[in-house]
Amino acid sequence: MSFEEFSRLQTEEIVRIGSKIVERIEQLFRLYCVTRTGDDFCDFKSLALEMAIELFPDFRFKADPDLLELLFPLYGLLANGTCVFDYQLLVTRMADSCFSIKKQPNQSKPGNQLVLLWLLADVEAVQLGRKRPRPYSDREAIKKLMGEEPFKRGGEV
Question: What number of CA atoms fall less than 13 Å from residue 93's CA on the CB side?
């Protein structure tokens, strides 16, 4: 693949992802019943306010919308609410907490680094113990591990 072809494909992917993001942000405006006025600053601030009212019902955002600025550090943003980009970032971070992806029930627990290290060590041991010239593929290494203890009996790692 030439550099020009790679660059073109990369640009197409960036445009595709950008259009998906814009589409989802527009869905948020409809979901929270915020009418677009053409003034992006006011529109995104209104959307952030409606989202904050729903996410934090105990705070009095309706009575004092300026409290919205206190959410920037809560979401790890250094912004201060002076431009549209600040509120676009805030809306994006707030939407992430609203629409988090549910994990499958059989997924491993994230953050258990020790178990992951053990698994990597087991795969490495299988690779080192091979009796053939080429390394095992990931699939082959997993099949080999599944035939050994503790994986063979379905035990916990």
Answer: 16
CA distance to 37, 58, 59, 98, 121, per residue, from 116 (Å): 50, 40, 41, 29, 9
pTM over 0.70: no
How would you write the chain as a 3-class SS string? CCHHHHHHHHHHHHHHHHHHHHHHHHHHHHHCCCCCCCCHHHHHHHHHHHHHHHHCCCCCCCCCHHHHHHHHHHCCCCCCCCCHHHHHHHHHHHHHHHCCCCCCCCCCCCCCHHHHHHHHHHHHHHHHCCCCCCCCCHHHHHHHHHCCCCCCCCCCC
Q: Residues 109-156: pLDDT tens digits?
A: 455 555 556 666 666 676 677 666 777 676 777 777 677 666 554 545
Task: Tell me the two tokens of residue 76.
Answer: 């790890």
